[in-house]
Amino acid sequence: MAWIFLFVAGLLEVAWAYTMKLSLGFTKPVPSILTIVAMIASFTLLSIAMKSLPLGTAYTIWTGIGAVGAFLLGILVLGEPANAMRIGAAALIVTGLVMMKFSS
């Protein structure tokens, strides 16, 4: 169950990063509220996952899901550039996540 909580926490990290972008520096109420709610839910699920997963593993996976997810969302939804260097960097993050998962 801890891995499921961690995965959902990572997806919620992507959600709060995106809604934070939409909040325009917390000047728009609805995206600002969504950001805070997603943050609280993400941190809560991360803390539950950390009850049985090592700190380094849980935090690395959580931030990795958030980083790669935000990267993909930026490309697919916000029209951010998808050049070879950025894609290569994201691939290295995913490789690290897979290695971290198998080391646990």
From TrEMBL:
It is a multi-pass membrane protein. GO terms for molecular function: transmembrane transporter activity. GO terms for biological process: xenobiotic detoxification by transmembrane export across the plasma membrane. One of its GO terms (cellular component) is plasma membrane. It comes from the Bacteria. Keywords: Cell membrane, Membrane, Transmembrane, Transmembrane helix, Transport. The chain crosses the membrane at residues 33-50, 57-78, 84-102. It is found in: Cell membrane. It holds the Pfam family Multi_Drug_Res. The keyword Transmembrane applies. PANTHER family: GUANIDINIUM EXPORTER, SMR FAMILY PROTON-DEPENDENT DRUG EFFLUX TRANSPORTER SUGE. Belongs to the drug/metabolite transporter (DMT) superfamily. Small multidrug resistance (SMR) (TC 2.A.7.1) family. Gdx/SugE subfamily. This is Guanidinium exporter. It comes from Desulfovibrio intestinalis.
